[in-house]
Amino acid sequence: MGAYYVNCFLFLLLTCLACVEGSKEPPIIVEHPIDVIVPKGAPATLNCAARGVNVSFTWYRNGERVITNKDQAHSHRILLDSGSLFLLKTNIGKNNKDGDAGNYFCKAKNNFGEAKSNEGSLKIAMLGDEFRVRPRTTMSLAGSRAILECSSPLGFPEPVVSWRKNEKEFSLNDNARATLDPTGNLIFSPVEYSDSGTYQCVSINMVGERVSSPARLSVYEKPQFIKKPEDVTSELGGSILFNCTVGGEPQPQVYWTKKGDQMPVARAFIARDNKGLRIENIQKSDEGEYVCHARNPTGSIETSARLRVQVLPSFEISPISQEVMLGGQAVFHCVPNGQPAPASFWSKSGDQNMFFPGYVSADSRVSVQHNGTLIIKNIKSEDGGSYTCAAMNSAGSALSKAKLTVLNSAQPINFPPIIEKLPQNQTVAVGMRMKMKCTTKSETNGMAVWEHNGKEIDMTRLGLRQIDDGSLIINSVKSEDQGVYTCTLTSAGGRTQFSSILKVEEKGDFKETKVIGDLETTLYEPGKPVLVEVTDSEIELEWTPPTVNETAVLSYTIEYYSPQSNKTWITLSEFIKGTKFRAKNLKPSSEYVFFVRARSENGLGLPSLLSSTIKTKEVLGDISATDIENINTRLSSEQIINLKEARTLNATAIHLFWTVRKYRDIVDGFYVKWRGPSQNNSQRFSSVLIRGANDNDCIVNELQAFTNYKFFIIPFKGSVQGVPSNSMEGLTAEAAPSLPPLEVRVRMLNLTSVRVSWKPPPLEGLNGILKGFQIEIVGEGNKYNRNISTKERAASVTLFHLTPLMTYRISVAARTNAGIGVFHPVEIIKMNTETLEQHRELYGETSSPILALLRQPWFLVLLTVLGWIVLIAIAVFLFMRYKRNSSGIKKRNGSFIKINDGSIHVGQNTLWDQGGTVHLGRLPPGNRTIMSQPFISGSPAGREMHEYAMGGQDGVYHYAQAPGDNYSSKFQDDPSPYATTTIVMSNDSAAFRNDGTILRPPPSNTIPHNPPFGIETEIERINDKYIERATNRRRNNPSPPQNPSYGHRLKNTIGSTLPRSPPKQTLFDFIPPPPMNPPPLLNNIAADRYEEARRAADGAISRTAAARLQKSKNADELSQRSSLLSDEDEELQSLHDGPLTSTHKKMPRMGISATFLNSND
Question: CATH number for the 635-725 domain, one of 2.40.30.10, 3.90.180.10, 2.60.40.10, 3.20.20.70?
Fold first, then answer.
């Protein structure tokens, strides 16, 4: 136990001895100062700590000892016991000498040594109050590039720039079109209207933030049509509205005009909701094209729409009923009018045929002239009846009727001849005698004409003759006489034919003569047909059987003749059982005559007597005459069908839709009629019958592709037709061409090239709009095949790099929007020498070496290269000549600039400045022309523009010394108000002096390339005199000299700023301002009249005011428009009409405008 305590004591003792030895070491820095940045005036601490005994600390700034509170009690630099340096309030000091910023280090010191810490910097953050470049109000055009400039105040650390929009933080992440360049400028590319607003530039560092004054970004949008007006069709007296909705910023001004005519007075108004044009009580004169104009400061646009006024057809001249003798002539006049011009046609009651202008009947008796007049010549009894002239257009239709009464119509009808004894079928042996009968009772029918197998028989043949009753006899029949024999009888009423068959057999096979219908076995005639009942399309007849051999009758045959339908007898029915028959499907209001024959085993017998002339009724059924007249009146009095739409289904079908306004209960159906352009020369409309009054649509099929058809609909009741509907056009869809291209030629140029040429297909086979051509080239293998498409204007293609000795098949087809059409027959060509020589001979070429050379590709390339070399040489020559002339002009004339601004004129006087107003020298005091704006005054060296005009008989020359734009100057922003008055005098109108006298416009002469001869000598002479006067004035002028400054900046066209350099000084910079009064004549040029000029200055001021008053008056007159303006748009009249640059500032505009006139001494 005792040993343990002894060891502990010894350990403690050794430890104390070691501590005593360690306290004798120098200090060791354990904490070094670090870089510190603090705002100005804020406290700061620079840390420093050391390990050691009795350590003291000393601080150094930029190598110099820091005065602390240990040295001066009131120092703001406090040395802490830990060794750290604490600054109560950091400051910059004057000239950075007494400031706290710098590089610091500390020294730790005791009796055994010292230690130096690492350096640490103290930097004082700062942020200026003024932005180096402030955002400025900017106007830009939508779609362009807009820049909001900003350069933050001076600061440390470097301030971070951000933006605010409408007092809210603007995030670049929310706008992909916005970027921030390194300088802090906010760029919109492209800018949109949504970017408009008030922007502020924010500059932030640890000191705080600086916010710029707000700047407005105004984005202008060009006018654009949101809803364009569309073509409108209106009826007379109606109202229409042309929509015209326009967008843009600022909101465009909208006004309307009528192309080539005046707007309707007191009936046209601009709708306030959408700026549309409303026209009320439409008149026929209102038809035309109306233009909607929209404009704002960014530009103007316009669009138009057409108003079509529909006027129902009416008749200027209506047809008049007539009574005409049989064989005479009737003329019916019909002149319709309407808008659009109506189409007209004629029709006869009970007849579906329509006669259009240009129609001529087959017998040339009925015709319609191009002016719509109907002419009927050599009138027959069947021509009597009611004739209707119909006119129709897209607005509707109208009818006008007239009745033709044929006098002396009781005379008998000229019937076609009737064969009493018909030729019968026979079988005879060779060498026998044969007789075929063909007789008639009438002596006016002429001799019968016989045909054998369709060919007229030669009656001069031996053994063949025709007897007086018309019968044909062959004395000795031959085998070649076998066949069909036809007997034809002709009269004034028409003609009749009947055929029979003759068979010829050899004598060995022939047993007996077989003759059907021999005279002895022929039946006698039946009784006359008698009317039982008649309707509009049916007639029922009854007759009695033959009086002899009644039991031999097997059946009856009935035939009829109608003067309105045919010129021969028509077999209505055969093998009729019984003696009563009902004829059906006859035409209404038509005359018919019938006869009957009896049939037995031996054939047809003799004809019966003719029936009486029977006329069918006008309508179906048993409607009374009163009802017929009522129906006719109702259907013919007004248009009851309105055709609504012709909808295209495909290339061959159009779907029609219509409505029935009234009288549906008396309508049996509709006739749908149409005609295409290919049928314009014909006078027939295609037609389809729709039975049933409840139908409201119809699909018309089998039409031609890409063809415009005109449709209309006619209602009917029985045989009574109503007023046609309005007409409507419909266009079928496109189809692939149905015909191939024409004149396809394949021409071999060399062993590897072929030219294929063609012409478009005919229009009737194109079936659409030609979009191009398809050329197929098929070689010997798929890799040699080609398929080429061309545009519609192409007429040929040249194929290169073909394979020699290969056979190609080439075909060409046209193409429309619907597809590729029919290919032309394949052209086969083999690429060999024989084919090449054949083509050269075929197209008239020779094997000349020169022509062969011209066809070589390398020769064509060589010619092209040589051509370019020649063109470049000419361009270089002209450029060098231009440079030489330009340098020569500069050398001779200094800064001479030709200005073709419209004010160049011939005159004798010099341009002088009088009190800021420019006059022409040597003009009488009451005959002066005032410029629109005074010159910009200033020292001679700093003047913005000098303009001198040296007078003479040859012309006046302008010398300009200006920074680019002669009519505008750009300055720094100035918040003070600015106003400029510009008077513009047009060269096209007369110029008025302040006393009301009309001055002649200035003539426009060609400007010479150089100043007039002798101008240098004249200028030197005047200059010497002016310099002497200026020197005397400077000697007597007590004011200090003035140095012009060019330190301001000019805004360029794209928003950047460039320093402005002083203009180059020339001889004119040393010439003092021109005198206040025009000089005297040349012989008295030494005489000065400055006193007279000062007296005239007051008068010039009053004349300037009068000119401005005249401008205001002219502006009022020009503000009156002939076009139609909206009331609420009057506030927009003052908007600037010129185009805006992509980005620019609002600046005051300056302009100089003057008109110079000759004076007469």
Answer: 2.60.40.10
User: How high does pLDDT run on average in the chain?
Assistant: 75
Q: How far apart are CA 537 and CA 596, in angstroms?
A: 20
- Residue 1098 CA to its chain's centroid (Å): 60
What is the residue-wise DSSP string for 870-898? HHHHHHHHHHHHHHHHHHHHHHHHSS---
Phi, psi angle pair for 874, to nearest 5°: -65, -45
Q: Is the Cβ–Cβ distance between 843 and 870 less than 8 Å?
A: no
CATH number of 414-516: 2.60.40.10
Cα 852 to Cα 843: distance, rounded to the nearest angstrom:
15
Query: How far is it, in rounded angstroms, from Cα 1050 to Cα 1057?
Result: 6
Using the CB atoms, write b or e for 832-850: b if 16+ within 10 Å: eeebbeebbeeeebeeeee
Residue 904 pLDDT: 37
DSSP letter assigned to residue 364 = S
Residue pLDDT, tens place only, 289-343: 999 999 998 889 999 999 999 888 989 999 998 988 888 999 999 999 988 889 8
- pLDDT tens for 970-1003 read 334 444 343 333 333 333 333 334 444 444 444 4
- What CATH class does 24-126 carry? mainly beta
Q: For 349-476, list the strands marked E by DSSP.
A: 354-355, 366-368, 374-376, 385-393, 396-407, 426-429, 434-436, 449-452, 455-456, 464-466, 472-474
Which CATH number among 3.30.200.20, 3.90.1150.10, 2.60.40.10, 3.40.50.300 corresponds to the domain 228-310? Answer: 2.60.40.10
- CATH value of 742-855 in 3.40.640.10, 2.130.10.10, 2.60.40.10, 2.115.10.20: 2.60.40.10
CATH code at 128-219 = 2.60.40.10
- The residues facing 383 across adjacent strands are none
Contact partners, residue 617, CB within 8 Å, separation at least 6 = 534, 535, 536, 588, 589
Tokens of 375: 């002419």
Res 1077: pLDDT: 55
Which strand (E) or helix (H) includes residue 631? helix 625-637
Beta strands per DSSP E along 922-1043: 948-949, 958-959, 991-992, 998-999
pLDDT at 86 exceeding the cut of 60: yes
- Of 307, 311, 373, nearest in space to 342 by CA: 311
Alpha-carbon separation of residue 647 from 81, 343, 486, 691, 704 (angstroms): 104, 22, 54, 22, 15
Tell me the H-state helices in 40-80: none
Q: Cβ distance 483 to 453 under 8 Å?
A: yes
Q: What is the pLDDT of residues 428-454, one digit of tens each?
A: 888 888 888 888 876 556 678 889 888
List beta partners, residue 592.
614
132: Cβ–Cβ under 8 A, 6 or more apart, which residues? 151, 152, 153, 154
**Same CATH fold assignment for domains 24-126 and 414-516:** yes
Beta-strand relationship, 186-188 and 146-148: antiparallel
- How far is it, in rounded angstroms, from Cα 366 to Cα 376? 5
What's the CATH code, domain 318-412? 2.60.40.10
- Copy the structure tokens of residue 184: 């802090």
- pLDDT confidence of 180, banded at 50, 70, 90? very high
State whether residue 179 is helix, strand or coil: strand
This prediction has a pTM of: 0.46
- The string of pLDDT tens digits covering residues 1057-1099 is 444 444 555 545 555 665 555 555 444 433 444 444 445 444 4
Question: What mean pLDDT is predicted for residues 1093-1111?
Answer: 44
Q: What is the pLDDT of residue 683?
A: 53
Identity of the residue numbered 411: Q
Q: Where are the domains of the chain?
A: 24-126, 128-219, 228-310, 318-412, 414-516, 635-725, 742-855, 894-1034+1048-1145
